[in-house]
Amino acid sequence: MNTKLWAMGFIVVSILSVMSIMTVSALDATTPFSTTLQWIVPASTTFTVTFEGAETSIDFDTGLTAASVSLAQPDSQDNETATPILVIENTGNVALNFTNELNETTPTWATLYVGLTASPDAAIEFNTTSPTEFKTSLAAAGSQDVYLWTTITSADEGTTQRLYYINASQAP
């Protein structure tokens, strides 16, 4: 090995070692070491949705006694006893906003409403495949009752189906 090359390597390593020592030696009682300490907790936007009654789907049939009915409730929901059709629970660790939507628009003869209380007075209309926000800032470990209603006018006889979606996003 070339002695000159070895000596240059030794000098470079020595200089780096001294620089490292100089950084450490600059600390003393009046200049303590400091760095940022961080807790990085990932946001969890998980939630559950359960049926309050014995239902496994949202069926508007018992309340539909004619081809035109206003604010019919789905089976198992009961406005008088404040029994919702669904209950959402925020199982994540951040506050969540909730939207609902359908896989296709409602039939022309139907209108859907979603509310957070047993009174349809404060319910909001949603009939499209676009997300409609119905609950904001549900706290972690919080729960929310969900009520649905439909109004039909000159409805076609038979069964008409749509997929109903509830989705969440982290509240600002």
Question: What would you say this structure looks like, in words?
Answer:
By secondary structure, the protein is of the alpha+beta class. It has 2 domains: 1-35; 47-170, Immunoglobulin-like (Sandwich), CATH 2.60.40. It has one helix spanning 3-25; strands at residues 47-51, 69-72, 86-90, 96-102, 110-115, 124-125, 132-138, 143-152, 164-170. The strands form 2 sheets. Strands 1, 2, 3, 5, 6 and 8 form a 6-stranded antiparallel β-sheet that branches. It has a 3-stranded antiparallel β-sheet with strand order 7-4-9, with no helix packed on it. A hairpin with an 8-residue loop joins strand 5 and strand 6. The protein is elongated. The relative contact order is 0.20. The model has no long low-confidence stretch (mean pLDDT 88).
